[in-house]
Amino acid sequence: MSLERLPHSLEEGQTAWIRIPLLGRIARLFPPFKGISALWKAEHHGYLPPHQFVDTQVSGPFASWQHIHEMKDDGTLTDKITYALPFEPIASLLAGGFVQAKLARMFRFRHRITGYDLARRDASFQGKRILVTGASGMLGRPLVAFLLALGFQVRVLLRHASADASAWQDVERYFVDETGEIPHAVFEDVYGVVSLNGESIVQKWDAATEARLISSRVDWNKRLVDACLASGFRPAVWVGASGISGYSPQTTLNDLRYDESTPLETNTFLGDLVQAWEASLHPLKAENIRVCHARLSVIMDESGGFMQAQALPVSWCGVLGIGAGTPPLAWMSLEDALGAIVHLLRHPSSEGVYHLVAPEVVSAKAFHQAWATALKMPFWGSLPAWVLYPILGRSMVTALMEEGVPAVPQRLQAEGFHFLHPDLASLFAHAVDIQNWREWLISKL
């Protein structure tokens, strides 16, 4: 499901256009089928700020649809939906139970996310402007939405002026010009910067790839910092993405744990990359800008990355790992990663290196077994890692799949950060959330 056109507000007569894929996961296997979809147009009315608005289907997949959104003063969110399927009563007999199961699962997820957002609002930071670079990535897009939900103003710096404006509703957009110049005005009246740039590391490593990985991280940060210092504007805080993969890797999970004081490995590609990535922000410290290095682990969310890459076989066949499954797998839920970044922006004493990882340290095999249990699917063991050598290269597969880092979030915990998903049980209760056989079946589609 994707938003084709966003309403400018919730006021009377505003419309939203939503594209609904009809073949679900099947379309991921067969790209020509991605175009098979339905366009849903909904119109807003009954707007009673801040307590209610109503959307009614003008055209779309239902015979009729009305959704009343109610928010009470105590923060309770209620959704009242009345709908009719096309070709009644046959449609209700054949698919009514499945539609209800789909809606129940969807709104449970929606209510959890709304609750997460409300719990992390802080009135003292509402209205402050945050600049996000790398906003088009797996972490960047939800971060922008999360910041807006918390009441921040958001500005993004994009590389291409052709970027779809509808994707950045309520967001200030600035662009790198044709020569690669970063406009100085992008830093004006900015409280904090979050720089998330970096080409995906999950690809075959060769000299050209390594050069791009360095350029998209180190060189970009240097250009961004230089532009900021030349602009005359000074944000209060800068949170820069980094990675936990620069430590000495382990092939087996044991009692060893790495906290933020653990030295990075030297004379290796990943160790040197992380050090250079973080060093590119050091000039900011001389300007009394509070700098936080967010060493990211594997971010877990079914919308992208690690979990989406395995979505098809996991949904249809059961869970299958890669390699021996013995290395430590450092992970963090998307919701906690977003919350941790906002914590670093808002916490006045946060500075230096932070591990964005969950408190529970697990092996890759334990992660896949827990995923299979949550999905009510079998765990088939693991494919040998060498099957991926021709595709992704031995060095990348070894570094990211046959080795791991037992990192712990010592500094976040010391500062009182509240993890929504501190362990696999809480992660999969949120990410999978299957409560009956109908929900299990629709999760495969």
Largest β-sheet summary:
7 strands, parallel
Unreliable sequence segments: none
Structural class from helices and strands?
alpha/beta
Strand order of the largest sheet: 9-8-7-10-11-12-17
User: How is the CATH topology of the largest domain named?
Assistant: Rossmann fold
Percent helix = 25-40%
Number of domains: 2
Radius of gyration: 23 Å
Describe the overall structure.
The protein is of the alpha/beta class and 445 residues long. It has two domains: 2-120, 2-Layer Sandwich (Alpha-D-Glucose-1,6-Bisphosphate, Chain A, domain 4); 125-431, NAD(P)-binding Rossmann-like Domain (Rossmann fold, 3-Layer(aba) Sandwich), CATH 3.40.50. Helices cover 33% and strands 23% of the residues. It is built from 14 helices and 19 strands. The strands form five sheets. It has a seven-stranded parallel beta sheet with strand order 9-8-7-10-11-12-17, sandwiched between helices. It has a six-stranded antiparallel beta sheet with strand order 1-2-3-4-5-6, with helices on one face. Helix 4 (207-231) links the parallel strand 10 (192-195) and strand 11. Helix 4 runs parallel beside helix 5 (269-279). The longest helix is centred in the N-terminal third of the chain and has 30 residues, at 90-119. It is globular and about 70 Å long.
